[in-house]
């Protein structure tokens, strides 16, 4: 790349009142209305959910580890609330030839602020731009990210000799001890791809500045672009006046949703009969309870005692235990509600409460709980996958765990194939199905209400929290959440049997 590109020189718009950043630039590429609201009306955004915050924190953690790849780099520690100090500190580091790499360097040019993950000094004048992502592959938005950073750096006066993306190799197997950074990270040269995007930046920025100068946000209808490449935080605001049965809520292909909206069809009820719909789409449109004649025999196919099993897992980006890989799920908890022919229900559960590798104890305790008799009811194929993974890790238990897999009975697939309730609204998530069929039993009374938060709280409990009372509170919340999942399956089976006019043995 040249020292200062002609395209960069041409970006001579006056510095606007509102400063852009690389994240806001990417938001503007996704939707001009999103960018406008982020700057003019940020209070309208829905705060990030705990699982979204966990993803962001995971990305930050990967970035911290990636710095070890450049052992003599220097971190610009000033935060986003200390931008003037960050700019000054970065300038000092750029001028210091002894600094081989700068982490989180701050650069401003033409009203655009970027914080660069890694800027590696190649020689007295040339630098390499490295963007770190907690993903396993290159995405289009990553190239846009690199493109705006390179434009700002060159406008600032930095000669960018190459643009690289550093991401995780999910095939890397951690053997214990020190991480092998050469194997865990992939460093891909994206210079040509970034260069191809650079000519578009001027027009993109001009469009963004023009939109921001308007008195009102752009008129852009919400649709599938609101989720690509990221879920927009203003979705709730932009859709607050949409009807309850808005056509966008129709499950299945987004192409059909777009086609219907283009034809002026706003609600599911307005969809003409000649439009070809899938079976689930047809049930959503019919908006009525549907019971397959095969539901009763499927429900009656279980063998007692019926176990109701659920795992909780966490998926660290940076492997936490030997013989694990990035983002591979590690079970740390299970719950098993066991129903006997007379209606008696007994609850078994396990939770690892410290930072050791929990997998062997998870497997051993589960085998003891489920024994060798009875159907094992689950609510996804996830348990099957986890049991096979445990068997691969623990060859001495592989046969026993395979026998457990053979006893699995998926309640989710039974409901999907043989039952529908209008309150499902096209979703078969247990968080939707349970309140629809068992209104007195939901998740809103729990401290932990979904698996993503459970994973976050588990990691906090075993790796971060030092207060024993708080650790105990987290453990109790985890027990209650996982137990609710398995008790839900007990109640769902009972309600469904009542729906088909039978009772449990």
Task: Produce the secondary structure layout.
Blueprint: H1 6-9, E1 20-21, H2 22-30, H3 32-40, H4 50-66, E2 74-75, H5 83-95, E3 101-109, E4 112-121, E5 126-133, H6 140-156, E6 159-168, H7 181-184, E7 185-189, H8 191-213, H9 235-238, H10 254-262, H11 279-286, E8 290-291, H12 295-299, E9 306-314, E10 330-339, E11 345-351, H13 359-370, E12 376-378, H14 382-393, H15 398-406, E13 408-410, H16 411-418, E14 419-420, H17 430-437, H18 451-464, H19 468-499
Parallel strand pairs: 1-4, 2-3, 5-6, 9-12, 12-13
Antiparallel strand pairs: 3-4, 4-5, 6-7, 8-14, 9-10, 10-11
Helix pairs in contact: 2-3, 2-6, 3-8, 6-8, 14-15, 17-19, 18-19
Would you tell me the overall average pLDDT? 93
Instruction: Assign the structural class, choosing from mainly alpha, mainly beta, alpha/beta, alpha+beta, or little secondary structure.
Output: alpha/beta
CATH architecture of the largest domain: Alpha-Beta Complex
Highest-level CATH class of the largest domain: Alpha Beta
How much is the radius of gyration in Å?
27 Å
- Number of helices in the DSSP assignment: 19
How would you sum up the major sheet? 7 strands, mixed
């Amino acid at each position: 790349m040249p020292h200062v590109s002609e395209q960069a020189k041409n970006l001579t718009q006056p510095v606007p009142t509102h400063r852009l950043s690389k994240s806001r630039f990417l938001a503007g590429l996704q939707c001009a209305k999103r960018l406008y609201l982020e700057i003019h009306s940020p209070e309208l955004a829905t705060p990030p959910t705990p699982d979204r915050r966990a993803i962001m924190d995971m990305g930050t953690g990967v970035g911290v580890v990636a710095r070890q790849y450049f052992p003599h780099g220097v971190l610009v520690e000033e935060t986003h609330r200390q931008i003037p100090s960050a700019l000054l500190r970065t300038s000092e580091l750029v001028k210091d030839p002894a600094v081989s790499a700068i982490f989180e360097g701050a650069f401003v040019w033409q009203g655009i602020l970027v914080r660069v993950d890694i800027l590696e000094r190649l020689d007295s004048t040339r630098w390499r731009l490295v963007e770190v992502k907690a993903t396993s592959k290159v995405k289009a938005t990553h190239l846009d990210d690199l493109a705006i950073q390179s434009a700002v750096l060159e406008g600032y006066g930095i000669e960018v000799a190459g643009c690289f993306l550093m991401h995780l190799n999910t095939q890397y197997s951690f053997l214990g001890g020190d991480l092998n950074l050469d194997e865990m990270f992939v460093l891909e040269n994206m210079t040509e791809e970034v260069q191809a995007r650079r000519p578009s930046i001027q027009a993109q920025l001009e469009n963004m500045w023009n939109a921001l100068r308007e008195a009102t946000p752009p008129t852009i209808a919400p649709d599938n672009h609101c989720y690509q490449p990221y879920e927009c935080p203003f979705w709730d605001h932009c859709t607050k006046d949409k009807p309850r049965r808005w056509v966008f809520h129709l499950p299945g292909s987004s192409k059909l949703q777009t086609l219907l909206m283009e034809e002026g069809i706003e609600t599911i009820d307005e969809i003409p009969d000649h439009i070809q719909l899938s079976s689930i789409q047809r049930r959503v449109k019919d908006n009525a309870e549907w019971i397959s004649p095969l539901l009763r025999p499927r429900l009656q196919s279980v063998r007692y005692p019926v176990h109701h099993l659920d795992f909780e897992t966490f998926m660290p980006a940076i492997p936490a235990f030997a013989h694990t890989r990035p983002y591979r799920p590690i079970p740390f908890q299970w719950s098993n509600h066991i129903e006997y022919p007379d209606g008696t229900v007994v609850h078994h559960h396990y939770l690892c409460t410290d930072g050791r590798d929990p997998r062997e104890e998870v497997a051993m305790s589960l085998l003891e709980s489920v024994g060798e008799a009875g159907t094992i009811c689950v609510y996804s194929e996830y348990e099957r996958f986890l049991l096979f993974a445990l068997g691969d890790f623990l060859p001495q238990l592989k046969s026993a765990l395979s026998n457990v897999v053979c006893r699995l009975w998926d309640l989710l697939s039974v409901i999907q194939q043989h039952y529908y309730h209008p309150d499902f609204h096209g979703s078969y998530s247990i968080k939707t199905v349970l309140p629809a069929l068992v209104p007195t039993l939901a998740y809103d009374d729990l401290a932990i209400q979904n698996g993503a938060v459970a994973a976050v709280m588990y990691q906090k409990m075993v790796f971060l929290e030092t207060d024993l009372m708080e650790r105990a509170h987290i453990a109790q919340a985890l027990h209650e959440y996982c137990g609710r999942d398995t008790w839900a399956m007990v109640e769902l089976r009972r309600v469904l049997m009542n729906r088909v006019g039978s009772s449990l043995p």
